[in-house]
Amino acid sequence: MAFFYCASLGEITFEGDAPSIASDAFYGVTATAYCLANNSTWTEDVMQNYGGEITWEEYTVTYTVTFDSNGGSSVDAQSVNYGLTATEPTDPTRTGYTFDGWYLDGEKYDFDTVVTGDVTLTAEWTTVVFAITGQPESVSVATGDT
User: Fold this and answer.
1) What is the distance between the terminal CA atoms of the chain, rounded to a whole angstrom?
2) Which is nearest to 117 in space by CA: 70, 61, 37?
3) How far is CA 87 from the centre of its chain?
């Protein structure tokens, strides 16, 4: 990558991880370079002038984590910046069911996972089973999962 004397360059936006940049890649260039915030590859060692007058600025990419409660109570979506994690919401409720967790593509979602794009998590449920015993005039109810 080289932009020797590209006086009209003005702005450069880098997406993703920091690339390898030659020490004189921006020789004679005055510009603002934008790099992705919350990306550990963009270090002070990378954000140099490279032979020009480069001002480095970080920009943020935000993704949406949507919660499909699958018949349960509503759960608000979250906006999550690139490189960060979603916050596990309060469990939704659904009459007659026990909440089993949030799932992505059939796998239980790990809220320590870094969000790298829009995602929809779906609630999974277990039906609560009621066992009725006794005479019609004296009924007892026991709950339990099956």
Assistant:
1) 62
2) 61
3) 9
What's the rounded Cα separation, in Å, for the pair 81 and 26? 29
pTM: 0.69
DSSP letter for each residue of 109-121: --TTSBP-S-EEE
C-alpha count within 13 angstroms, C-beta hemisphere, residue 72: 24
- Residue with structure tokens 């510009």? 31
Torsion angle of C-alpha atoms 39, 47, 12, 1, degrees rounded to 10: -100
Cα–Cα distances (Å) from 60 to 71, 75, 83, in that order, read 34, 25, 10
**pLDDT in single tens digits along all 146 residues of the chain:** 566 556 667 888 888 888 888 888 888 888 888 888 878 888 888 888 888 888 888 888 999 999 999 999 999 999 999 889 999 999 999 999 999 999 999 999 999 999 989 999 999 999 998 777 766 666 556 665 54
**Per the structure block, which two tokens stand in for 3?**
């932009």
Strands 97-104 and 107-108: antiparallel
